[in-house]
Amino acid sequence: MDYNSEFRRSIDQRDEFWSEQARQIDWIKAPETVWQAKDNGHGDWFPDGVLNTCDVALDANIRAGRGDQKALIYDSPVTNSQHSYTYNELTEEVARFAGALKARGIGKGDRVIIYMPMIPQAAIAMLACARIGAIHSVVFGGFAAHELAVRIEDAQPKALITASCGIEVTRVIEYKPLVDKAIEQSSHKPDTCVVFQRPQARADMQTGRDLDWNDIMASAEPADPVPVKATDPLYILYTSGTTGKPKGVVRDNGGHAVALKYSMKLVYDANPGDVYWAASDVGWVVGHSYIVYGPLFAGCTTILYEGKPVKTPDAGAFWRVVQDHGVNLLFTAPTAFRAVRKEDPEADQLEKYDVRSLKRIFLAGERLDPPTYEWLREHTGLPILDHWWQTETGWAICCNPVGIEMMETKPGSATVPSPGYNVQIVEMDGSQVPAGSQGQIAVKLPLPPGCMQTVWGDDDRFRRTYLDPIPGYYSSGDGGYIDDDGYVFVMGRTDDVINVAGHRLSTGEMEEVVASHPAIAECCVVGAHDEMRGQIPIGLVLIKDGATIDHDELEEELVEMVRDKIGAIACFRRAMVVERLPKTRSGKILRRVIRQIADGEEYTVPSTIDDPSILEEISEQFRR
Ligand code: COA
Ligand code: AMP
């Protein structure tokens, strides 16, 4: 099968195509209906199918004879430890933890928040929720208490699962005080809080609510997978939008399992027994799809790495992991390799390790800049494959479909639309843009299986954000173009979302925090170009009349506020006091122009600007 005919079939004979893919997973009751329209081109996948996602990930592999194969390898340079689980062992742990949750009254449809570092218990907790039909919502460990509180408020979890600490390069981060603070801030209180105690920091336990992971595991009865409808939610994953309130992306069980299984072959050409490593974090969609679910659906061995690309202990860390575990497929964000390249420009570290097991390197999460692509290509001699996707889609919208046909790579392009995604470049009114010209990247509805169903608790927001802007299409929020050969080039967000070291963040959210400082009259935050992190946020602030505060002191306070409310990962380190902000006559802040000025790019003075001289003032300040 070649790519073009596979792609055409996925669009022209959609139901037949996905029905075939659905047969690649184990169902409790196989679906008869493939896709059912709801409204406006949106719909449900496999609505009458019944399955259990944990069964597909674990038990199905045991049934297929892979019980003694390694399912998960935990590699932790920050604690100097490694541990692996076979499919038999992982299933037993997961079933036991599922039983422990069940014994606390947690079952189908209940929400469970998981706020954990990169330890196997995070994956075990996710799979255990799936086993009993509970909906997990993993919150990235780098988020501060306030962010966690917002998610507790929205998801209303019955239980929260955490660990006593996470370990960063220079410090141990105690999680429990953050969890306690978040629960205190939220009006919703989970009944149960399960804590995995780590020796690097012991958590104080609250009687009645807090339970020790090991204690409840010791007395637990293993639980069997419960049947759930394909359309029942598997998880909620919060992601940044343009407003201060994150969106809870809801993913189903059936479409997710079918799509991820298909993607493991299509995008990565992963086969049972392959060692697959996504160097990311379970708190992000990459971690959900390709540390936990995808590799297990495909019978691979997945690696869960608690460390960084550099400084744990050096820029050879990735190559060391590849060698130690015989990694075949590696997936990470370009920023990780930018960090490696900065510390080891000639890739001397690569020479120290035997990385012959490695077949391909995959990158996503942000634009793969051509210098990073070239560096990797030159030093590894391997195919370096960019692919473009989002939390909302859960798997690649565009990729090099190596599982079907390896296509020529074009630096700067995520290659071609994955089968199932009818990608088009359009104007906001839905009219087509000619090949080579930039526009909004949109996907003609319906979306393929595995994509978001709705926004948790706010279907209106889902429609307003994704379906209403361009009728008949899913609006991706990214801009770009398709060239004459059908290659898709993603040029960046067209909204106020920024990407800092592969972490998706909202400038709107940072603006809310900055604006809450008593001395601030008005502010705006833009994402400026950064060599290593891709983008970093920069604040422009206007001080209230009469407020007297030293500018450096104010900057320090604002930086601390963003760290405290959002987290250190926001990397908000600069707040510049300005006399005025450039606005249109209708009062809209001209963020795009500010960003261009910050990046030292040429800009055209918008005709709608209220007072063009402000732009010169701001340029002057950036130059200083
Ligand atoms: N828990 C708590 N704090 C965290 C954290 C976590 N899980 N992850 C990061 N932080 C903190 C860091 O300690 C740092 O704090 P500091 O300002 O006090 O030093 C801050 O957040 C910024 O973190 P980061 O941007 O990760 O900087 P870094 O210097 O530690 O590492 C990279 C830089 C490029 C090596 C790192 O960002 C990286 O590996 N990125 C890959 C991105 C990725 O995996 N993205 C997922 C999508 S594929
Ligand atoms: P997230 O939801 O955190 O995965 O972030 C999704 C956003 O990251 C997308 O909307 C893009 O802006 C950006 N992104 C992800 N992958 C790529 C890629 N391969 N090329 C360009 N941008 C990307």
UniProtKB/TrEMBL annotation:
Domain annotation AMP-binding enzyme C-terminal: ranges: 509-588
One example GO MF annotation: propionate-CoA ligase activity
A GO cellular component annotation in the UniProt record: intracellular organelle lumen
Pfam family, one: ACAS_N
Ranges of residues in domain AMP-dependent synthetase/ligase: 65-446
Membership in a protein family: Belongs to the ATP-dependent AMP-binding enzyme family.
Organism superkingdom: Bacteria
Gene3D superfamilies per record: 3.30.300.30, N-terminal domain of ligase-like (3.40.50.12780)
Protein name: PrpE protein
Annotated Acetyl-coenzyme A synthetase N-terminal domain residues: 3-55
